[in-house]
Amino acid sequence: MTTPRTKNPIPDWISTPYPHVQHSLITFPAKHILLVTINRPKYMNCLPVEATLELGALWKWYDAEPELRCAVFTGAGNKAFCAGMDLKQRLDIIHTDEIAHEYPSGGFAGMSNRTGKKPIVVACNGHAHGGGFEAILNADVIFASPNATFALPEVLRGVSALAGALPRIFLLFGNHRAMDLILTGRRLSVEEALSWGLVKEIVPQEKLLNRTIDYAKEIASLSPDSVIISRLAAREAWETGVSRATMRGQELWAENMLRSKNASEGLAAYREKRQPSWKRSYL
What we know:
There is one protein chain. With 283 residues, the chain is of the alpha/beta class. It folds into 2 domains: 24-220, 2-enoyl-CoA Hydratase, Chain A, domain 1 (Alpha-Beta Complex); 224-272. The protein has helices at 49-64, 87-96, 131-137, 165-173, 175-184, 190-195, 205-220, 224-240, 242-259, 261-272; strands at residues 24-30, 33-38, 70-75, 80-82, 120-124, 127-129, 141-144, 149-151, 188-189, 201-202. The strands form 2 sheets. Strands 1-2-3-5-7-10 form a 6-stranded mixed beta sheet, sandwiched between helices. It has a 4-stranded mixed beta sheet with strand order 4-6-8-9. A hairpin with a 2-residue loop joins strand 1 and strand 2 (33-38). This is Carnitinyl-CoA dehydratase. It comes from Lindgomyces ingoldianus.
């Protein structure tokens, strides 16, 4: 997978500059698309605390930028999406008694416990272990290369995956599959991940990023209001269960959806048998 260029000017259709990011590359491969690439391939794209703080701020900016509709998240190189937390830094913090900065509300990589407004699609270009797996478990759609593996090896390190993975893995895979991964720290192969429903497609490494960006373009071509509302209404099940989530979706979003300019445009385009021209979303 080709690593994006390190310098890429902000396109004129972006209204506000993105926050400072040192450990990741920020590019805009197409209109309405944000591409975020963790740029620490020498370290298997593991993240120090500072990188997680940066990503937390970046995802909030992404949600607030009206012209962005879908994000793609990947790692530099072809070995790892993200090998998790920088454990050497964490050990230094423990030994020196320094105070670690608290993670943002979105959790590890600003993502493991993120709700957010807009979708994040992952191009998993290799290993996603520890915090990297925790982030992926909370992604919206995942494409993966043939060498991708997934693991929560915390029990092998004397720690635990407390950034959001444990309850999510239980809900996604059921009790026995979840316990198999959690209690042994074993690696889940990409073929297993596909059969378990975690991964949408296995894509050759050299085609992975382009396939994921094309998929993001498909999402970005749809009504941004409908994408935001549908995603949030579905994700309510993480928090409340199916019945309550259905009611909450109606309470929170039904009126805003029907009153939006994009609802009027989509229905008018259907009646007039033409392609809709979507407006910015200000939800």
